[in-house]
Structures are given as structure tokens and as C-alpha cells.
Amino acid sequence: MLLSRVQGSLVAAVAGDCIGCLFECSGNVSMEEVLDAVQKIEQKAAKDKDETEGDRHELPFTDDTAMARSIAASLIEYKDINVPDIAARFAKEFEQEPARGYGAGVVTVLYALADPDLKDVFQPARKQFNGSGSYGNGGGMRIAPLGLFCHNQSLEELKEKTLSITRLTHTHPYAEVGALLESFAVQLALSLDNSKPLDTNNFLDVLLQRLQPTEEEIYEKHTERNRKEKDGGDKPEDKGIAGLPYCDKLELIRDLLKRDVDTDEVEEKLGTDVAALESIPTAVYCFLKGAGRSIPEIEERGPVEQTIIYAISLGGDTDTIATMAAAISGAFYGLESVPQAWQESCEGVRDALLFGEKFTEIISAREVKS
């Protein structure tokens, strides 16, 4: 059912963010520590059933969810992408609650986006890091709502909308391609038949087929743009990006899934930090690993649970990797795969459920018209 899967993606993403935040930047994280935290969350949820809603303590969400909510709300209001409105929502959300864990780089952009006299909403991000733009995972961490909203729309539409939203804060090619990988993965997961086990090889094949030409195009445009700027005397020479690093990592994921590898090897080969290239492919791997339902110590848990718990156990940027992985997993498995105790324990779940309802109404109406 479409509603369950759209809600499942949005709710799972919130849970990944809220639970992952408990371990963010804490160095090495053991599976035992994550399981202990999850079990405490579940025990507390059971005790809180007798409490009134206002007396319950929820795990807070971070900037990941805050920015994803802004995108979702804008898409619902305008029934399509409205970049100036999304920019304004990002700035307002930050102004109202600046302590959600925003990175220093994006804070500078958000202050600039709040300027009512700003004519070009893309300019602040383009100026970041001497004009090279941020290569962080901020575009990917918030893009899942768009991947859902573009269900049954063309890949080209999803690509252009993803890039527009990403470029509000991140303009480095690695950030752009990373956000595309996440939005493509969410859209793909939502489109597949979930009545049978996920074919992980096929999932990777389709992702590669969709991502490769886009990755090539973005790097070519980046190289050409920098060449023109160098000729104009504005920038030092940039030799461009060699190869297709995201496609290479997707092939590496295929290899890792075939072998019984430990978390150290995953961290070493895929990465777990805030750079888009070092975290967004990792999120895809966590989804596919959870889909196998054979992770030691958590075999008895469902695929969404396994995805989130495993993602957090890798350490590093735990909230962002977990929220991205969970968004893909929830889109495939649906709301029923997110434990009720987790839903009751995480801030923002009620809004995510409402967003899911509105998204499904818009998607269904769009399909009737077509």
C-alpha cells in the first residue's frame, strides 16, 4: 500500500535521526551499546503508555529532520518544488531552533538566506569555501521527501529538483551526486514490489544505470565551469574529478555484501563521516545489509530495525547515515516495519505521518489526472 510505504520512509527517517543522534561523533560504537540504547527506548515507551501525551519525553530530532520537514511542507503547499519557499523555510526553521546541530558551514548560508534583500538564493552556497562549495552530506540527509514525492515521475524531473534543492546549501559535485544517489534510491525503493525479498544485485544495477550518466555529466560541467573561470582569471586551475567515485562505491557495496565483513572494513572502504562521498553510499549499503536480515546479534529484528541499528553501529555521523538508510528501507518495507515503541519515542513522528498522508493524496491525484 502506497500510504504505508510513504509514511514508512518518513517515519523511519525520523527514527534513524533521533536514535542515531544518541551516538553522533562518539567514536567507535559497538553493536552491544546500540542494542542497549534501543532496549531502553523500548522499555521506556512501554512505561510511558500510562502517561499523558504531554508528559512523555521524546528523543529530539536534529537538523537532518528539521530541513527534511521544511522540504516536505513546501512540496505539500505548492504541489511541486518552490525553491525560494524552501530557502525561506530553511532560514526560518534555523532562526526558530538554531540548536538542532547545524554545521558551521551551513549556518553561514542560512543566515544569508534569511536576508529579505537576497536576490539569488543560490549565491550564498556558491560562495562557500572560496567558491568550491561544500561537499558535505547536507543535501542527501534531507532529500528523501522529494524522492517520495516524485513517485512515478521521470528520473529527469527528480534529478533537476534534487539538484535545485541541494544547491541551496551545497554546490560541490560530490554533494550534488550524493544527494542524487539518495533521492534515486528512495524513489527506486518505493517503486519496487515488496511482496517478495529485495534483489540487492538488481537494486544496485538499476541505481548504477541511473546514476552513471548523471555523475559523468555533473563532473564534466564542473570541469568546464572551472576551466572558464580559470581563463577569466577568477580561479586557480582545477583538474576536475577523476573517474566516477560514486559508481565505484556502488560496485564496492556489491562486493562487501557478498562477504562477511566487519564494521571496520565498512568504515575504511565506504566511510562514515560528514562528507557526502563518505556517508551516502554507506547509507545505501546499510539498507541493503538490513534487507538481508542476517546481521549477527539482531537477526530476530525486522529489516528497518536492522538497517538503523547497523548504521549506528558503524559510528561516525550516525544520525545522518541512519536517517538516510532508514528513509530507503522504510520506503520499501512500509510503516509496519518501524516498531511502535520507536514511533512513540521520537519527536516529529506525528508530523511525518501527516506528511505521508498528504504526499499520498497528491501522488494519487496526480496519477488520476495522467
From TrEMBL:
UniProt binding sites for Mg(2+): 62-64, 317, 319-320
UniProt keyword annotation of Kinase present: no
Cofactor binding: number and manner: Binds 2 magnesium ions per subunit.
Superkingdom to which the source organism belongs: Eukaryota
Basic and acidic residues biased stretches: 219-240
Subcellular localization(s) per the UniProt record: Chromosome; Cytoplasm; Mitochondrion matrix; Nucleus
Keyword Metal-binding: yes
Gene3D superfamilies: ADP-ribosylation/Crystallin J1
EC number: 3.2.1.143
Uppermost EC category: hydrolase
Keywords: Chromosome, Cytoplasm, DNA damage, DNA repair, Hydrolase, Magnesium, Metal-binding, Mitochondrion, Nucleus
GO CC terms in record: chromosome; mitochondrial matrix; nucleus
Broad class of the protein's primary localization: nucleus
Subunit structure: Monomer.
Similarity comment: Belongs to the ADP-ribosylglycohydrolase family.
Protein name in the entry: ADP-ribosylhydrolase ARH3
Organism: Littorina saxatilis
Lineage: Eukaryota, Metazoa, Spiralia, Lophotrochozoa, Mollusca
